[in-house]
Amino acid sequence: MVTIASQLGESFNDEIRALLPGIRVLSVPRGTPAELPDTTSILVAAPIIVRGAQAPERPPPGWPFGLQWVQLGSSGIDFYPRWFFDGPPVTTARGTSAATIAEFVLAAIFASAKRFPDIWIHGADQWAMTPLATVEGSTVGIFGFGAIGQAVAQKALALGAQVLAVRRQAQPASNGSGGVQFAGDIGELAERADHLVLAAPATPATRGIVDRALLARAKPGLHLINVARGSLIDDEALLDALADGRVGTASLDVTEPEPLPAGHPFYTHPRIRLSPHTSAIGPRNTVELARKFARNFASFTSGKALEDVVDINQGY
To answer: 3-class DSSP state for residue 301?
Structure first.
């Protein structure tokens, strides 16, 4: 019998038991994996490096404990130490929260266009009509056209927005796909977008990609939305771009570090909308990840290729 060790809790474990009857699922503590039962061949791992937590630089004795496959409970691999990937294949939760994050992005776009909550009034002396922007006809730029970027594009197109995206294999702007136009680089996105969505993984190539040079090219009043990782943005450059009006608003669901230290200017800046890395959290996360795991389990047991295997050299 195949044994699965899971750090994700009983709600996830029960979903797996329902989808894969007859499979043994053991609940194990979160954090750095300790020694597992000899029969364990699969580990479902919760994020380790979160909210200031650290992981040991070296693996625990016996790692990887005879495991044949590790499934991450997250899409990003930066929540895990480097040695986590020196062993059996590791797969990510890519796509399981894409729809939830895309809804968050659209909410941020609407909040910016309609100036929520700034237009709420609290007295008769504030009764004055205010011109508002529309989402229809605006340009939504998407940096990173994976599962999240594609979900954002689908929803933005349905609202009548123009969508301009950058993906790993750059495409000229004339090559549209389902209404999406592809730009050559993020600089073109910054120049043309009203709302620029960061949805690319954290890699050495994306670290600090939103820097002074990029923001100097931005369309005045740009709305910057980050649902990727805080490492993509140079914080000081963003603060300066907000001060000179090059960036109108920044909606940041992620930062570096997380959480930000007390007193950080992002907490009180009037044009930064800061949320605590919560865009991916929704009511169907557990179900979607369990279904993805079950699909991969069928591949695993039949000797087929696994879906969304980590390429540590690529960084995702």
So the answer is: helix
Residues annotated as part of the active site: 229, 258, 277
Rounded average pLDDT per 10-residue block, the chain, 316 residues: 94 97 95 90 96 89 95 96 96 97 98 96 94 97 97 98 86 61 97 98 96 98 98 98 97 97 97 97 96 98 96 91
CB 68 within 8 A of CB 90: no
CATH 1.10.10.10 fits 3-96+282-302, yes or no: no
- Taking the complete model, does pTM exceed 0.85, yes or no? yes
Distance, in Å, from the CA atom of 134 to the CA atom of 150, rounded to the nearest integer, reads: 21
- The CATH architecture one would assign to domain 98-274 is 3-Layer(aba) Sandwich (3.40)
Phi, psi of 302 (to 5 degrees): -105, 5
Which amino acid, 238?
L
Using left for φ > 0, alpha for ψ between -120 and 50, and beta otherwise, residue 240 falls in: alpha
